[in-house]
Amino acid sequence: MTGRILALDPGSHRIGVAVTDAEGIAAHPRPSLDAGDPGLLDAIGNLVRDLGVGLVVVGLPTSLSGAEGAAAEAARDFAARVEAHLGVPTTLHDERYTSVIAERALLEGSLRRSKRRRLRDGVAAALLLSDYLETRR
6-22 burial, b if ≥16 CB within 10 A, otherwise e? Predict the structure, then answer.
């Protein structure tokens, strides 16, 4: 695999986005995408092309027990659509707790609610990507 790694943390309203640095060591949050945007796959394709992405990691929400529900099924479907549309390898990675940890980190930073809401999805995607990178090492 060559290129950067892009993480997508799909939600019902927004999709958190993060990307690795050129060396594939650190994860950096990016602005989130609108999950309801009809041009969503094209917007992701633009990121893949512009950033030189060689792999897309999609967050897979599971319960504490590891069981998968409707949200996990939707994430699997989303990952399959991304891979089919972009032709870039796509993998799923457990994203338990990423949104909760991101919210706590932003609360500790004393950010206003509106700013936390804008940043939370990207931070959650960066946590997802960092965990993925750690499991690969």
Answer: bbbbbbeebbbbbbbee
